[in-house]
Design brief:
The protein is of the alpha/beta class and 318 residues long. It has 12 helices and 12 strands. The longest helix has 22 residues. The N and C termini lie far apart (54 Å). The protein binds pantoate.
């Protein structure tokens, strides 16, 4: 099997975890790009530490800041975009991605973001046929700039935003590389449905855990909380239907099971609030509101949580 070369962008929990596992599985074919100068120096000096259910390992892989320097500009088969939606919306990131797209015109891009809206935005920078979507349920927690804990095994689906007839060769190569690193990765021929499933799960768990400042499992501890979850879920389901995505009502059970499986986790939105960062709410609940408005649907439960999270973000900034 020929190995593929992957450039991972993003020094957050998922970026560090995926890059570490892939670098450990296949030496010399992965590199990591971060934007924070301190993290860049630490990773280059001490390596990337991964703690998992299989042990503790140190991965040494080239780490760059912003753009790979001219003397290390190998060609990359894949560029994996692991940064949050909040970073993608930033002008500095847009300029960086434009530079990368022109340096590596033959690379395929795979985007791991929560929520929706980013593929449309990225299409103005990267040719759409080179963009692929990844939806993952892997869970990781960044402990410091060079240490990441792989807290939960999950699955990763990869597919094209276009209704492609079947998986391309390049997608299969990426799946193989991820498989070699121990990930359960699969091609999805209906990535839109997979994106919507995750969107609805995030649109319920994330704002409620952030507003109530509780762990995911605590959502199931009272009738009121479950009723609140159901309201958000039903509104989301109606928007998906209006968008032509027929999600099965069985998704409600899946949502409850995500709460049970990740019972001890702080959701990503709660972590953002606790750390004074902007959340991804605009791309999760906000994108549902926008899609609902296109179809004349009112979403009072989502509108209320959007208002509350915006207020919490404002308090954090203040
Ligand atoms: O965003 C998150 O935190 C996760 O996607 C999920 C599924 C809500 C579990 O914490």
């Amino acid at each position: 099997m020929t190995s593929i070369r992957i450039l991972w962008i993003g020094g957050g929990s998922l970026g560090l975890m995926f890059a570490a596992r892939c670098a450990l599985a296949q030496e010399g074919t992965n590199a990591l790009l971060v934007r924070n100068e301190q993290q860049y120096h630490i990773l280059n000096g001490q390596g990337l530490e991964l703690i998992g259910d299989d042990g503790r390992f140190t991965a040494f892989l080239p780490c760059f800041q912003n753009v790979p320097p001219a003397d290390s500009r190998d060609s990359w088969d894949w560029i994996a975009l692991m940064v949050k939606q909040t970073h993608l919306a930033d002008e500095r990131t847009a300029v960086q991605l434009e530079t990368l797209a022109s340096l590596y015109p033959h690379a395929n891009w795979v985007c791991f973001q929560n929520g929706t809206g980013h593929i449309e935005r990225l299409s103005s920078i990267i040719p759409r046929e080179r963009l692929h979507i990844a939806v993952t349920t892997e869970a990781a927690r960044k402990l410091d700039d060079r240490t990441v804990h792989h807290t939960g095994r999950g699955m990763t689906f990869i597919g094209s935003p276009e209704a492609a007839p079947g998986p391309e060769y390049q997608e299969k190569m990426l799946i193989q590389a991820l498989g070699k690193a121990g990930f359960d990765a699969r091609v999805s021929n209906n990535i839109k449905e997979t994106v919507w499933k995750k969107l609805l799960i995030n649109a319920v768990i994330n704002p409620l855990t952030a507003i109530l400042r509780i762990r995911n499992g605590e959502l199931l501890e009272s009738r009121e909380r479950i009723d609140w979850m159901r309201e958000l879920f039903q509104e989301g389901l109606a928007v998906a239907r209006a968008e032509g995505v027929n999600l099965s009502p069985g998704l409600w059970e899946e949502l409850l099971s995500v709460c049970r499986r990740t019972a001890n986790n702080h959701s990503s939105m709660l972590q953002d609030i606790m750390n004074g960062r902007r959340t991804e709410m605009e791309w999760i609940n906000g994108s549902l509101l926008k899609a609902g408005a296109r179809h004349g649907l009112e979403l009072p439960a989502h509108a209320a949580v959007v208002r509350r999270i915006r207020e919490m973000e404002r308090d954090n900034r203040g």
